[in-house]
Amino acid sequence: MLTDIVLDAMGSDKAPEPEVKGAILAARSYPVRVHLVGPEDRIRPILERYTGRRARGRFSGAGNGRVPLPIEVIHTDQWIAMDDKPALAIRQKPHSSMRVGLKLVREGKAAAFITAGNTGAAMASAKMVLGNLPAVDRPALATVMPTSAGSPCVLLDAGANVDCKPHNLEQFAIMGEMYARSVLKIPRPRVGLLSIGEEEGKGNELTKETFPLMRALDLNFIGNVEGRDIFNGHADVIVCDGFVGNVALKTSEGLARLVRDLLRRSLTSTVTARAGALLSRNAFHDFKKRLDYSEYGGAPLLGVRGVCIVGHGSSSDRAIMNAIRVAAEAVQSRMTTHLEEQFTKRAAMIAVTSDQLSRNALVE
Prior knowledge:
Blueprint: E1 3-8, H1 17-29, E2 32-38, H2 40-51, E3 71-75, H3 86-92, H4 97-106, E4 112-115, H5 119-129, E5 140-145, E6 153-156, H6 166-182, E7 190-194, H7 205-215, E8 220-225, E9 237-239, H8 242-267, H9 271-279, H10 281-291, E10 299-302, E11 307-310, H11 317-332, H12 335-363
Parallel strand pairs: 1-2, 1-4, 2-3, 4-11, 6-9, 7-8, 7-9
Antiparallel strand pairs: 5-6, 5-10, 10-11
Helix pairs in contact: 1-2, 1-11, 3-5, 4-5, 6-7, 6-12
C-alpha cells in the first residue's frame, strides 16, 4: 500500500527542479505516492525531461518498465518565497503551495506534508491549517544530528521559535523523547538540556527555570549537556530554544563543509596523497555521507496535528528524496497519534491537578 505524501514543489532555493527530481527518486525507491503542488506549467516539463516520456494523466512519468510512477501534479499559481514575511504572505496568498498541500493533509487526502521553503511560513501555515496538538503551545523543529557513537541525536528546537519560555522547552522535551522512541527506535532516550555547563546552576534564566520542570517529567533526563554533547553520543535528545538550536545547526553545517573541503585538499595535494585517497575512497565516501545533511532529509515539525517535514532551503534532489522517506517513516510509526495520546493524557493530568489545587484553596 502506498503512503500519500504532499510535496511543496516551490519551496527550495532552486525550485521546482530539486523537488521534482527528488519526487521521482522517492517514487522509484519507496512505497509512496507523491503529490507535487505548484504551477503545472513549470513542473510537468521537468517530469518529462527526467522520466524520458511525456507526462500524461494523473500519474506522471515512467517507472520500471511500462509502469507509470505514482506522482500527481496539483496546480496552484501561488507560492511563498524565502524572503516573504510569513504573516503577510499567508494573508495575501491563500492558495499558496504550502496552504494547498497542508489542506490535503487536513482533509485526509494525504498522510504527510513536506516543504523546503520559508520556515516561519511553514510553521504558521501548519498551525493555522492543521492546528496544534492538545496542551502544545508551540510546535518545534526536531533535526537529527550525527554522533561519533554512530547513533543519532535529536536537537530541538532547531529554529521554529526564537524566544521560548520554560514550559515550551518542557514540551519540546516530551515531543523529542517521543520522536526518538517512535521513529528512531531508541528504547529509552536520554534527554539533556543544552547549557554552558553540566552543573544544575549553570546557564541563563531560561535554562535555570527549565531544569526543575524537566527533572519532574517521567523521562530519562540526564541534566544539563554542553555543545560538544550534540556530537559525542552522550544524549539522544537535546532541548534548547530555537535561537540557540538554529545557531548550533548552522554552525555544524558550516564546520562539516570546512572539514570536507580541507580533507579534499589534503587528499589531492600530492601524488602519494591521491594514491592513498584512491585506496581509501570507500571510507571517505562513508565519512562524507555521515556528515551530509541531505542524508537526513528534513526536520519534522512536532506538535501539529499531522506529519509536517521542513527541509533546508538549499535541499538537493537527494535531500528531498530522504525527506519523503522520513515523512513516510513518521506516518508508519504513527508518530502524531502517539504524541497526541501523550499530550491528551498530560492535559488531563494538568486539569485534575489544577482542579485539586482550586478545591484545596477553597477549603483553606
